[in-house]
Amino acid sequence: MTYRTIRQRLMLSAGSTVIAGLLLAAAANSQASYSTTSAATPSPYAPRDMSSSAPTGQPMTPDSSLAAPTTPQPTSFQTSFWESLTLEPKDAWGILRDSFKWQDTPLPPDAQARVDEWIDFYSSSPTHLAEITERSSMWLAWIAQQVSSRQLPGEIALIPFVESSFDPAARSNRGAAGLWQFMPGTGDAMGLVRNGTYDGRLDVITSTQAALDYIELQAEQWYDGNLQLSLAAYNAGAGTVNRARHSAQAQGLAGDYWQLSLPNETMQYLPKLYAIAAIIDDPARYNVSLPEVHTEPAFAKVQLDHSVTLAQASALLEVSQASLAELNPGLLNGAIDPRNVQTLLVPEEVDSEVLAQLSQGESTLASSPSYASAANTAPSIPKTYRVARGDNLSAIAARYGVAVDDLMQWNGIERANALQTGQLLTLSAQ
Predict the structure, then answer these.
(1) Cα angle vertex 181, ends 222, 6, to 5°?
(2) d(CA 133, CA 127)
(3) What is the domain partition of the chain in residue ranges?
(4) Within 10 Å of residue 126's Cβ, how many Cβ atoms?
(5) What is the pLDDT of residues 78-135, one digit of tens each?
(6) Is 421 helix (H, G, I), strand (E, B) or coil?
(7) Torsion, CA 189, CA 191, CA 194, CA 199, rounded to 10
(8) Element (H or E) spanning 347, and its range?
(9) How far, in Å, CA of 280 to CA of 46, rounded?
(10) Which of 8, 46, 119, 411 is deepest in the core (most CB within 10 A)?
(11) Other CB atoms closer than 10 Å to residue 322's CB: what's the count?
């Protein structure tokens, strides 16, 4: 079965063949997986117990037609049901658990063994897993809503755990970036703008929509709606998965994910996802403490049709510039350019009237003394820059408004592709 909505069918059907071709070409570089876990020790695990005794109704009296009318009384089941709703209010974790669709389907023994290894791995370091869940708290409720709105399994909302440890600024040494670790070519194929001032792969809003589109599109295009095969292709590329599937089918196998022979990273991809979902499904069992996450997103969106720097927005909204930068990692130079993106994320507690003022034009904003003061303060360019994984000279030069040739001259670089992670670059001739 597929999970594509009617709206998505109409939107994607016309161009699916063209996009699929782009994706196959982009996937040749493969989707990189970004993981920061540590070594593990064994711990016991068993699938959660879903056994329950179904409530039985009240028996009819032998001659109910002759019995005196009585006031209906709630059964003990009805009473306990409503009490449980009162005593157990749901947070984002509870809603996410309810949306899991793969946890209660038994796996073949060898597949379950692969999952158990990763459960042992993650549960051996509950503090590390707690750090990742804490980092996820800013984005989890919103991502879970997007997954649910497409009727996808809730486990898909946990993919950023596997890909980036829920770090929107994560970059791999193969060039993947963002919460969903898009490779440059795949991001380009999915319409994620990428230039010197903005990188849509780092923008949580746009990259999440693109990632879910990508997963659904591949499931529809290649795998008859099989999302697990699509996730394997998300990691290794559709060509790699398709070849492994044909090989399995030639051996008389059904060709589902758990039967395929794939690159090691992809062989571990779904076991990791299953393991994280199992731990989140029952954190107390694995001595993991989950942070409180409300059911509503931890941020608000402001639609803008004019340029605004984070310094200006910080002054007007009276929130720290660091908080705005954390919510908007796609803004590489600390400013929103409506030619690239029109949505600024702000903390949820910001007053709605101030948000309305920010969304209005420059003429209205100019009347705000704090905004005007911030506007007159030019953003300072650092003297040096430490090269991060996935960086290249052209992107760094565009980010800080300098020429690539100048960067190479100032730093004695002979070949543009000779950058080393951790290298300190001088950003001026001084």
Answers:
(1) 40
(2) 10
(3) 6-39+93-286, 299-375, 384-426
(4) 16
(5) 444 434 333 445 789 999 999 999 998 999 999 999 999 999 999 998 888 888 999 9
(6) coil
(7) -120
(8) strand 343-347
(9) 14
(10) 119
(11) 10
CB 329 within 8 A of CB 338: no
Reading the block at residue 290, the tokens are: 């989950």
The single residue listed with the structure tokens 């720290």 is 320
30: left (phi over 0), alpha (psi -120 to 50) or beta: left
Give yes or no on whether 6-39+93-286 and 384-426 have one common fold.
Answer: no
Which of 105, 207, 231 has the alpha carbon at shortest distance from 159?
Answer: 231
Give the HSE-up count for residue 102: Cα atoms under 13 Å, Cβ half-sphere: 21
What are the backbone dihedrals phi and psi of residue 340, each rounded to the nearest 5 degrees, phi first? -100, -45
- As a whole number of Å, the end-to-end CA separation of the chain is 62
Would you tell me the crossing angle of helices 227-236 and 269-281 to the nearest 10 degrees? 120
For 208-261, what is each residue's pLDDT tens digit? Answer: 999 999 999 999 999 999 999 999 999 999 999 999 999 999 999 999 999 999
Helix or strand run (H / E) with residue 23: helix 16-27
Max Cα-Cα span within the chain: 102
* Cα–Cα distance for residue pair 252/172, rounded to 1 Å: 37
326: annotated active-site residue: no
Tokens coding 220: 């529809």
Residues across the chain: 430
**345 three-class SS:** strand
Give 85's Cβ-side CA count (13 Å radius). Answer: 5
Please give the model's pTM, rounded to 2 decimal places: 0.69
Token duo for residue 236: 């290794």
**Spatial separation of the C-alpha atoms in residues 277 and 38, rounded to whole Å:** 18
- Look up the CATH number of domain 6-39+93-286: 1.10.530.10
Instruction: Quote the tokens at residue 97.
Output: 């658990």
Which two structure tokens, joined as six digits, stand for 359? 């969304």
Query: Which DSSP string corresponds to 120-149?
Result: HHHHT-HHHHHHHHHHHTTTHHHHHHHHHH
Q: Which residues does residue 301 pair with via DSSP β-bridges, in sequence order?
A: 345
- Taking the CB of residue 372, how many other CB atoms lie within 10 A of it? 14
Report d(CA 69, CA 292) in Å as an integer.
49
Cβ within 8 Å of residue 99, ≥6 positions away = 144, 147, 148, 153, 154, 157
- Kindly report the CATH class assigned to 384-426: alpha beta
**Rounded to 5°, angle at Cα 270 from 266 and 272:** 100
The active-site residue, picked from 155, 163, 216, 220, is: 163
Residue 279, token pair as written in the block: 């731990």
